[in-house]
Amino acid sequence: MPGMKTLLQIQECMTGGLHTITEDVSVAKAIEVMRTHAIRHLPVVRGSEVVGVVSDRDLKMAALFRGTGGLQVGDVMTADPFIVHPAASVDRVADIMAQRKYG
After folding, report:
1. How far apart are alpha carbons 30 and 16 in whole angstroms?
2. Of 1, 41, 65, 94, which one's alpha carbon is 20 to 30 angstroms from that of 8?
3. Is the dihedral of CA 5, 10, 11, 17 positive or negative?
């Protein structure tokens, strides 16, 4: 319809070729994966379910203060990440993220 605003959907902004990691992977290996692929965040999966997210900062802080020996991604990840449907409106998601103070 003329004059009707079309809202941008998340799927139009998504990055392809997603890399994921599992909870049982070592912090050292996760750091290596991030360096290899030049990324700063990894979704943490259990089967096909996203159960967390880990950032390069999470991993570096853990390695700095606790070392990497025996430490796994599941020990340092943020559980229950904010997840949205690909068809969600970018404007609506941005509003929710601002309200909840997500970066």
Report:
1. 20
2. 41
3. positive
CB under 8 Å to 89, separation ≥6 — which residues?
7, 8, 9, 10
Contact 85, 96 (CB under 8 A): no
Is 24 within 8 Å of 72 (Cβ atoms)?
Answer: yes
Does the pTM of the predicted model rise above 0.85? no
The dihedral region occupied by 74, where left means phi > 0, alpha psi between -120 and 50, and beta the remainder, is alpha
The pLDDT of residue 64 is 85
Write the DSSP assignment of 50-70 as a string of letters: EEEEEEHHHHHHHHHHH-STT
Angle subtended at Cα 83 by Cα 77 and Cα 86, rounded to the nearest 5 degrees: 140
User: Could you report the per-residue pLDDT of 20-62, keeping only the tens digit for each?
Assistant: 999 999 999 999 999 999 999 999 999 999 999 999 999 989 8
